[in-house]
Amino acid sequence: MLYEMIGIVRPGNLAEVKEIVLTAGQIILRQGGVVRDIKNWGVFMLPRATSRHQVRYTRGHYFVLRYDAGVSTHEAVRSTLAVDPRVIRAAGVKLGDGKLETLSRLGPINWKKMEV
C-alpha cells in the first residue's frame, strides 16, 4: 500500500531531520518497501503549542515521506518515530485503494503557500 507520513521534528538542526528520515527510510527498505518521495517543507509555526518529552514547542520542522510498504512496516516506522525524543509528532495515512489507476493520479508532494 502507498502511505504518506508527515513528520514534525524539533526545529533548529537540519541534520536531525535528515537522520530521522534516513532511519525511517532504512526501516522501509529493510522490510521490502520502496521510498517514493521525500520533501523537506521547512520550519513553520505549529497549529497550537505542543508538549513532547517535557518540552513545549511552538515551531516545528516539517517533512513528508511517501512510501510503498506493508502494514507491519508502516507500524514499525510509526512506533520508531513515536519513541524518538526529537520528533514532536508524526502521522501517516494510506493513499488510494491500492489500484494502479488510482495511484497514478497522485502527483508529487506539494506545499501550498498561504497568502497573507
Automatic annotation (TrEMBL):
Gene3D superfamilies in UniProt: 3.30.70.60
Pfam family, one: Ribosomal_S6
A GO term from the CC aspect: mitochondrial small ribosomal subunit
One of the GO biological process terms: translation
Keywords: Mitochondrion, Ribonucleoprotein, Ribosomal protein
GO molecular function terms listed in the Swiss-Prot or TrEMBL record: small ribosomal subunit rRNA binding; structural constituent of ribosome
Main subcellular localisation: mitochondrion
Compartment list: Mitochondrion
Transmembrane segments: none
Recorded family membership: Belongs to the bacterial ribosomal protein bS6 family.
Function according to Swiss-Prot or TrEMBL: Component of the mitochondrial ribosome (mitoribosome), a dedicated translation machinery responsible for the synthesis of mitochondrial genome-encoded proteins, including at least some of the essential transmembrane subunits of the mitochondrial respiratory chain. The mitoribosomes are attached to the mitochondrial inner membrane and translation products are cotranslationally integrated into the membrane.
Stated name of the protein: Small ribosomal subunit protein bS6m
